[in-house]
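Morning. Coffee machine broken again, so started the prediction first thing and wrote up yesterday's gels while waiting. Chain of 301 residues, entered below exactly as on the submission form.
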Amino acid sequence: MQSSPAFERLQVIATISIAVGVVVLGLKYLAYHLTGSVALLSDAIESIVNVATAVITLLAIRWASKPPDADHPWGHNKVEYFSAVVEGVLIVIAALAILREAYGAYQAPHLLEQPWQGIAVNALASAINAAWATVLMRQGRAQRSPALAADGRHLFTDVVSSVGVLAGVILAALTGWALLDPALAALVAVNILWSGWRLVKESVGGLLDEALPSEQLTRIRAIIAANAEGAIEAHDVRTRHAGRTTFVDFHLVVPGDLSVTRAHDICDRIEQAIKAEVAGASISIHVEPDDKAKHSGIVVL
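Came back before lunch.
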């Protein structure tokens, strides 16, 4: 298993996520116990998912840190996309459980018990979640970890829905309108269903080797054009993401009489330029003689 500081940092962050999730879950369940609010129960159910996904994220990061082997020559980075898909499925299951509770409360509405104590406890849990979601999203981007970033985005969605729940529970406590409680729970379910769908969609894109965004691809093409002096053109540029690694491959057309050493120097120069711009880039260049030129693609400056 790789022992790089980056992977060690990711594992520490993922481990802390589990502890934070357990604390927040305990606080949110206490808030439900104090109030009997099905909306606060929905918030607690989502926190169960948060703990489960934090565990999955840790396992995914540990697996992704394994070095390439004979059976997996490209490494294990894509396991992080699988973990994000599992998170999305768990979110959907949680949403369905919340809808079930909301329907039961709609059929038998009741006034809230000790609403202000429960609101205070839930607000504390939401503040902890907000702080930690910010850490996860920043570290996920900085460390190029899809699993960590997905966990942070899901947690932030939980914070947004928690704020809505708190506002609604406060309104229900002030007005005594019992039906507002299950209505809020149903809204929470719809919100996290949407979050789960977006998470699964994004992760499936990574599993299917989706190309880089057009802005990044344009930048890479410009780098190739600016650093391929001595070549004629580059074509068939392909890109994809796999966890922390960005794969770039293309064909480079050079004059037929160019020496192997000179062609190799051009490739080295292009690779260094791309890696300076794209962290974690893995680059493959297929060198071709001038009779293979397509007179399209990237014209060398």
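The chain has two domains: 5-207, 214-299. Going to sketch it on the whiteboard this afternoon.
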